[in-house]
Design brief:
heterotrimer, A mainly alpha, B mainly alpha, C alpha+beta, A: mainly alpha, B: mainly alpha, about 0% strand, binds protoporphyrin IX containing FE, binds fe (ii) ion
């Protein structure tokens, strides 16, 4: 089921795992800032962070022996999912806030007894 | 309403008065947690200290149980705090709530005294009923378990009935369902079995499904209320996002249980499930980051309570690092085989519990203090505002110091004890004697002093902030300052 | 300006999603729980019946599975007495109860969970530190009953006296022996179990069908500490 990490790779595993999350957050952060503030200049930096994420994920995959019929697809899914997540979430932000200016009574419940 | 800056419960509604009681005990138990943590930490450095008087196991039991109880008290307080506002109806069984508060607190005091004085019992079922259940975090003896369940049912009744009589909002719906799940799970930890695998299987239902699912959502509900009331964010949007959070948290958290089923006798398909859901785990965090940025760009927020806001931001960061980064570093089974049960685990446990939950409860404390003093000014230039900032600085510095020290110790242990020596008795002590380990224990203790200092400042600040303040609170955008 | 949000961004859509995702995950968890319980109830595929304490238990690397596995050996009754399944269960239950009443888990880890002040107990039964298999049982009982004068390590940590009676100590040893036979998916990795092979002149054991007998094991001399 798993091939345990080799002793020499411990540090690589910890470090690259942390980097996956940190770059993931940085990518999301820059992406959102770029869209919100209409600063297209930030977008290349966002994708650069994603590249960092992808590199960290691949290094992690190698060091943690994430190969074989189960783990390889998991890595693929991580790469695709993390790329798409900020896009998806941002759309969701925009669309959920469309009600913003129209709905003045929002401090009151939208449904009763529900 | 009493004069500004004077602590007076007349400023509060009935539920909020009860909440202040819970908050007070919560803050005291936080102090107890630190005291027993420091004693346990000291025993790493001086093993003969209090040996066979108050042993490490006793200090540690008190340390982790105090934590569970003070956080739960903070949550219960938080719920009572928002209940009347949210339901627009007085708490239905307030006198019962008050009665239960005293009974529960008395029970907690008795349990603590029994842990401290009686400590252990004979290997009979009576010991589990009256002294100690011997299962980390949920040691409370069975009689207390039953008392807790009863108290909690009363609490649940109060919440559900108040919402039912008043208005039943979206936040209310999530809150009620979540409380039901939270307390239902507790029952999974209440039976004896000789089978240690079965025992730990259900034990993790309580521990993991609390901290990585139901507690997260509970804090989410209270935060949602805070966003609506203190920042004037629109209810419909906040509620939609609460649902999104529930979907993401429960979607990744429930089967995320798998990361505790790697090595306890459970079948090896859990290695795959645990690994897979660990990979999903960053998604809720990404959602949080994007949404926070979006919100701060859309709303020009004016904040009426700076300490509470600072602790809320700290909560987001703490959750991100403690659960997100620290969690992901050791959660894949390929590496968890070596980090499992080393100082890696408490490194993550400390940062995650403090980052995700203590910060939130401290934020509620500040909200409560503000309103108890007649809704005084708590924005920029608070009189004596250095205290909350330094309290926050020392609590965080101490916590980060402890976490990093334990991380270094765990890194060494995972290699020497787990990988090289294969976790034998000799291997264990070889790792414990290694300079990286012994020095880390020193640094943990030093950082612990920093944390203790932060706690003292926090208590002082909570008792005095706003006292000499004469300005009323800043009204949040578009809303009169009624909360 | 829009009064009703897009369907996929509406609160009612996400309320339903929250309910379905939570409910769905929970149903999967229930299903997995039933399946897992069939593995972990005593006598299941990964957790042995209690009468396993009548046999020799070893822990070795399994090349096929690429991990360590418990190996159930010939009959080697605990304290020289063969027990029926019910008697064995009662003894292990007493031992487990003792570990809870004394709160072992707030210093030690069991199956890797608990506290980190003292060694992991998952394979304590097999630990070479007990000397040899001939003296192990009694050494363990003596230690549990009176550990405070037995300094085991350079860091000066000692287990306290917890008022464990002889009966409780024997039961605890039974519990530990039983626990060491649980198949924990290879945790702890690389554990060097005590040599339990019989002295060469001893007659061959009666029934040894489960033992794959890897040759590497026969070579080293009996481990001393
Ligand atoms: C706020 C959320 C969280 C809190 C409060 C928390 C707290 C804890 C605590 C206290 C433990 C130790 C339990 C024990 O005593 O044995 C633990 C273990 C663990 N946590 Fe978390 N955790 C959180 C989130 C996460 C997340 C998101 C992940 C994974 C991505 C994670 C992965 C783990 C793992 C793998 C272990 C087992 C460590 C071992 O093998 O010894 N945790 N957690
Ligand atoms: C001065 C501050 C503190 C000190 C000195 C301290 C010390 C300790 C010590 C010595 C242990 C036992 C670890 C072991 O078994 O080796 C422990 C465990 C623990 N502490 Fe603390 N602690 C402190 C603050 C906190 C805080 C603020 C929290 C959470 C809000 C916390 C949560 C925990 C948890 C969850 C465990 C169990 C971890 C596990 O089993 O993995 N501690 N602490
Ligand atoms: Fe977990």
């Amino acid at each position: 089921m798993i091939e345990p990490v080799h002793l020499a790779d411990f540090f690589t595993v910890f470090f690259s795992a942390a980097m996956v999350i940190l770059f993931g957050a940085l990518y999301a952060l820059l992406f959102a800032f770029s869209r919100v503030g209409q600063r297209p200049g930030l977008m290349p930096l966002a994708y650069l962070s994603y590249l960092g994420l992808a590199a960290a994920a691949l290094i992690l995959a190698r060091a943690a022996n994430l190969h074989g019929p189960f783990w390889t697809p998991v890595v693929g899914l991580m790469l695709a999912g993390y790329l798409a997540a900020p896009h998806f979430i941002f759309r969701l932000c925009v669309d959920t806030h469309l009600v913003e200016d129209a709905d003045e009574s929002s401090l009151f419940p939208t449904r009763q007894g529900g | 309403m009493a004069a500004l800056g004077i602590f007076d419960t007349a400023n509060l509604n009935g539920g909020q008065r009860l909440a202040v009681k819970y908050f007070t005990v919560s803050l005291i138990l936080f102090g107890a947690q630190i005291l027993f943590g420091m004693l346990a930490g000291l025993q790493y450095l001086k093993p003969d200290f209090l040996y066979e008087v108050v042993d490490f196991s006793v200090n540690r039991t008190l340390h982790v149980n105090a934590m569970v109880v003070w956080l739960l008290y903070g949550f219960i307080g938080g719920v009572y705090w928002l209940l009347e506002d949210e339901a627009q109806h007085p708490v239905v069984g307030l006198w019962l709530g008050n009665l239960i508060f005293f009974i529960l607190t008395l029970a907690v005091a008795v349990v603590v005294l029994v842990y401290l004085i009686i400590q252990v019992g004979p290997g009979e079922i009576e010991s589990i009923w009256f002294i100690n259940e011997g299962r980390e975090y949920i040691e409370a003896p069975r009689w207390a378990d039953i008392g807790i369940v009863v108290s909690v049912l009363v609490f649940f009744f109060n919440v559900a009935a108040t919402f039912a009589k008043g208005r039943y909002t979206g936040v209310a719906g999530v809150l009620v369902a979540d409380l039901l799940a939270l307390f239902g799970l507790y029952l999974a930890g209440m039976f004896f079995t000789p089978n240690v695998s079965v025992d730990q299987f259900w034990w993790w239902w309580v521990i993991h499904l609390w901290v990585e699912a139901t507690w997260e959502v509970l804090v989410g509900c209270i935060m949602a209320y805070m966003l609506i009331v203190t920042l004037g964010v629109r209810r419909k949007i906040v509620e939609t996002w609460l649902y999104i959070e529930v979907a993401l948290m429960f979607g990744s958290g429930i089967l995320g249980l798998g990361h505790h089923y790697f090595w306890i006798g459970t079948p090896d398909y859990w290695l795959a499930i645990g690994g897979f859901f660990s990979a999903l785990e960053p998604i809720p965090l990404v959602a949080m980051v994007v949404h926070a940025v979006f919100d701060s760009g859309v709303h020009k927020l004016r904040n009426s309570n700076h300490p509470a806001l600072a602790w809320t931001i700290g909560q987001a960061a703490g959750n991100f690092f403690g659960a997100g980064v620290w969690g992901f570093m050791h959660t894949l089974p390929q590496i968890n085989l070596y980090t499992h049960g080393t100082q890696w685990t408490p490194s993550h446990g400390h940062l995650a519990f403090f980052g995700a939950y203590s910060t939130a409860v401290i934020g509620f404390f500040y909200l409560a203090v503000q309103k108890s003093r007649g809704n005084v000014w708590m924005s920029g230039n608070i009189v004596g505002g250095w205290k909350w900032k330094w309290a926050m600085f020392w609590l965080w510095t101490g916590m980060i110091g402890m976490t990093v020290a334990l991380l270094i110790a765990g890194y060494e242990q995972s290699q020497i004890e787990r990988a090289m020596e294969g976790s034998t008795w000799m291997g264990y002590f070889a790792a414990q004697a290694h300079p990286w380990f012994t020095q880390a224990m020193n640094w943990r203790q030093i950082s612990g002093w920093g944390f203790t200092l932060g706690y003292c400042l926090l208590v002082w600040d909570l008792l005095t902030i706003g006292k000499r303040e004469t300005r009323p609170a800043l009204a949040p955008q578009g809303e009169p300052a009624t909360a | 300006m829009q009064t009703t949000p897009l369907w996929w961004a509406s609160d009612s859509f996400w309320r339903k999603m929250a309910i379905w995702i939570t409910g769905g995950s929970f149903i999967v968890l229930i299903f997995l729980t039933f399946d897992t319980l069939s593995y972990i109830t005593a006598g299941g595929k990964q957790v042995p019946g209690y009468a396993v304490i009548n046999q020799r238990i070893d822990y070795r690397f399994d090349a096929g599975k690429n991990r360590y596995m418990p190996v159930i050996g010939p009959e080697e009754p605990l304290f020289g007495k063969v027990l029926g399944e019910a008697e064995a269960e009662a003894l292990v239950a007493k031992g487990k109860l003792t570990t809870q009443a004394k709160n072992c888990m707030e210093c030690h880890t069991l199956l890797g969970n608990g506290a980190y002040y003292a060694p992991d107990l998952t394979k304590a039964w097999l630990d070479p530190a007990w000397g040899s298999k001939e003296v192990r049982e009694q050494t363990m009982v003596d230690f549990l009953m009176n550990p405070s004068d037995k300094l085991h390590n350079v860091v000066g940590r000692r287990m306290p006296r917890l008022g464990i009676t002889e009966e409780e100590a024997r039961a605890t040893v039974a519990f530990l022996k039983w626990m060491s036979a649980i198949d924990t998916n290879g945790f702890p990795h690389n554990f060097k179990a005590m040599d339990q092979s019989d002295p060469v002149q001893a007659p061959p054991a009666a029934a040894e069908p489960v033992q794959p007998a890897p040759p590497a094991d026969a070579v080293p001399a009996p481990a001393q500490q």
